[in-house]
Amino acid sequence: MLTLLGVIAGIIAVLLIVAAVSPKAYSTQRNILIDKPAAQVFDYVKFLKNQDRFSKWATMDPNTLKTYTGVDGTPGFISAWDSKEKNVGKGEQEIIKVTDNTRIDFEIRFIKPFPGIAQSYMSTTAVTVSSTEVVWALASKMAYPMNIMLLFMNMDTMIGKDLEIGLANLKRKLEA
Questions:
Q1: Mind listing the pLDDT tens digit for each residue in 107-122?
Q2: Spatial separation of the C-alpha atoms in residues 136 and 114, rounded to whole Å
Q3: How confident is the model at residue 123 (pLDDT cuts 50, 70, 90)?
Q4: CA distance from start to end of the chain
Q5: How do the residues of the chain divide into helix, strand and coil, expressed in percent and rounded to 5?
Q6: Which of 4, 84, 86, 156 stands 20 to 30 A from 131 (CA)?
Q7: 4 near 133, Cβ under 8 Å?
Q8: Cα–Cα distance between 34 and 167 in angstroms, integer?
Q9: What is the pTM of this model?
Q10: Which domains does the chain have, with CATH numbers?
Q11: 23: left (phi over 0), alpha (psi -120 to 50) or beta
């Protein structure tokens, strides 16, 4: 019995040491080319309510309760969601900064199923007068010792796939 407890304690100690030296942050970004002028694309993506029409996460549960506070497209605007679906959860997204015609920065605060904070942005860059590159990026941290999960989960692939779906939806919407 004592040997078994010693083995369990040893495994826990190794996991905690590995977590202490493991990455604590992750980031991902994806981009897409949209055949519309940059100003037109930016005027669409700067409004968080429009994410309800293209973001994979916003469309996962049609019964999600959504609330909005402030003036959309401006710093301080908050888009909140609450879903009974575990993969959607509860949280809010706030516009932190808007750089006219180029970038919108927001902070995402997750409440359920796991608390967390992510920094995200969408940027638009004119490639030609009638085409725009859109970049959607997200970065976050995992607290110790939960950060050990980053060794087993490829967040770039997991989150990146959802960003790709959202950007493809955005392209279809704006080019229609």
A1: 999 999 888 899 999 9
A2: 22
A3: very high
A4: 68
A5: 35, 35, 25
A6: 156
A7: no
A8: 9
A9: 0.82
A10: 23-175 (3.30.530.20)
A11: beta
